Amino acid sequence: MPKLRLKLWIKRQPDFLTTLVRGAGVALSVQIMSIGTIYASQILLARWMGVTEYGIYDFAIALSLSLAFIAGLGLPTAVLRFIPEYRIKQDWAHLRGIIRGSWQQTLIASLITVAFSTAVLLWLVLHQRLDYSQTLIIGIWIVPLIALANLLQQIIRAFQQMTLAYAPELIIYPLVLIGIAFVWQLHQSLSSTVVISLSILSMFIVLILQSLLFQQKLNTEVEQAKPVYAMSQWWRVALPLMLFDGSSVILSQTDTLMLGVMLGAKAVGVYGAALKTSLWVNFILKAVNAISAPMIAGLYAQGDRRGLQQLISTIARWMFYPALVIGIGLIIFATPVLQLFGSEFTVARESLIVLILGQLVNVGTGSVGYLLMMTGHQTQAALVMGATAIVNVVLNLIGIHWLGIVGAALATAFSMMLWNFWLHTLVVKHLNVRPSILAAFQA
């Protein structure tokens, strides 16, 4: 009976809400599986490696993620902006052009980034002491794979193929990595250098598999079209998005990188457990954004402001209540949850609580970033994120110096709140829609 009522409710909704219900169900299933898989893999790696080696690995991955977003040149979000438009217009030539062109430019940019970064690290090794330099240098070479995987994920996501977009990187990759690592640790101890090397191998396998599967799903019209490149138009959108993405990376990785520089690998490992645990609060935000971003672009292109408000109010209600329940549960059981990583990680309890509160604000303000980026207001969003990234660096410098990992958590949570409130103000001003959970209550 409940299933029948759900079907009748779906039939009564506008087409875009029906698509959201069905797509979000798939995206949510993938996100639940992915965060569970990734979280379990991090617990196992932390137990197999120990807190210090795990911290070195986490630091190397944070550095590689930062460089990969720089190498992406803003193209992952740009394709998410243009592909839905080309699909609506059936502009197969430009669609093929942006897929091929973005792939080629990302590969070239990532190889240049790797070459330059490797040269800098080697110079540092020769001229001054650099801790865990071997792990960092090897880790740099995962950057092209991460950059291409990010781009391919957003291309597939723009086609609303949610399972294919997210499952390879978020489910299959950690499973492959943990499987290979498990076999390795049966015979030899796992060091950060070994795990980074295994990560490169695992991501290469998964990227090839995902590329082949996506190629099979492309329409004949797209495959046969002669590519047309609107480079100036794409770059006008991509460059501000590169600032936005770069700022997002700074905001998400500054705490880890600065802890590694200021307090060492052990602090990174302990804090990393709290940071990864706090991400349970916003996984529904990611799941719903996965399907809603191209829908936002489509509704805005059609001038349907009423539909856009209805969409984001629905999103706000779907996201906040589960996030609140998860957040309260994690705060209550913070110590036993962190103990899953090992007894040394329970000192991160206060940091975990602070990060959870920041994530609840992140979810409660709604999909503010995507609302601006998908509607042509990417420049304003990028400026906000850039300013907040600078604030975040300063706050982490002060917070870590005085309060250690708790200071890093406070700086990250405050920065998260700042950019969300700021972007929310811009959404209301430029789009005249209200995306927060408070607006959803009033509606």
UniProtKB/TrEMBL annotation:
Which CDD domains is this protein grouped with? MATE_Wzx_like
Chief site of localization: membrane
Tell me which domain of life the UniProt entry assigns to the organism this sequence originates from.
Answer: Bacteria
As for membrane topology, the entry says: Multi-pass membrane protein
Is Lipid biosynthesis there in the keyword field?
A: no
Protein's cellular compartments? Cell membrane
Q: Which residues cross the membrane?
A: 20-39, 59-84, 105-126, 132-152, 164-184, 190-213, 234-251, 279-300, 320-341, 353-373, 379-395, 402-422
Identify the keywords attached in UniProt to this record, alphabetized: Cell membrane, Membrane, Transmembrane, Transmembrane helix
Q: Tell me the protein's name.
A: Flippase
Native organism is: Gloeocapsopsis crepidinum LEGE 06123
